[in-house]
Write a structure and sequence with these properties.
InterPro entries: TerB-like (IPR029024). This is HPt domain-containing protein. The protein has 189 residues and is mostly helical. It has a domain at 61-186. 71% of the residues lie in helices and 0% in strands. It is built from 9 helices and no strands. It has helices at 3-46, 51-59, 67-70, 73-80, 87-99, 107-117, 124-135, 141-161, 174-186.
Length: 189
């Protein structure tokens, strides 16, 4: 074998190696650019400017089209509090979604459906709390109280949708009550 042949093979292997490295770098750059675009669109739709909060929300699949569904995340968390989502709890969450304008066939509804079918990670409560804290400075006191009241009323409806035995006893379990307390606490921080 000639030195020239070996040199050509070496160069060909280097080109393949660097072509793969370039593809990986381009893929990472594209993903970072897409994530940045999603965060910018979410910021514009929600009014949130905190990059860490936007990062968390994008990580949960929230974007400009699904931000309305995020406002209903607490209802999903209440529905899952006892470890499963009852059909009546699911119906209560989806009814609340319709009340606040989440389109039946839209991306927000799809996100809610996914959260109802597969238990969202426990840190969704943290992301939602961060969301509430991020939007609160832009609200006057009347609007904050209304937001809190509306949300907690809907959450109590979900908690009461299932439970009790033949209509006797508390329809809200202790774990649901704990989740309701956590949701209320988010408004006081």
């Amino acid at each position: 074998m000639s030195k020239e042949f070996l040199h050509d093979r070496e160069r060909a292997l280097e080109e393949v190696f660097f072509a793969e490295q370039d593809k990986a770098l381009l893929r990472r750059l594209k993903e970072a650019d897409e994530k940045k675009s999603k965060k910018e669109a979410l910021a514009a739709a929600s009014g949130i400017t905190d990059d860490a909060v936007l990062e968390k929300l994008v990580g949960f699949g929230v974007d400009a089209a699904t931000v309305a569904a995020l406002s209903l995340a607490p209802l999903v968390l209440v529905a899952w509090a006892d470890g499963e989502v009852d059909a009546r709890e699911r119906a209560a969450v989806l009814s609340a979604a319709a009340e606040v304008g989440v389109e039946e066939h839209g991306q927000g509804r799809q996100l809610l459906e996914r959260w109802l079918a597969n238990r969202p990670p426990p840190h969704l409560i943290t992301a939602w709390t961060d969301y509430i804290r991020a939007i609160s400075p832009g609200l006057n006191e009347v609007d904050k109280k209304q937001l809190k009241s509306d949300l907690l009323d809907r959450a109590h409806k979900v908690a009461g949708a299932a439970g009790g035995l033949l209509g006797i006893g508390s329809r809200t379990s202790s774990v649901e009550k704990e989740m309701l307390a956590r949701l209320e606490k988010a408004f006081h921080a």
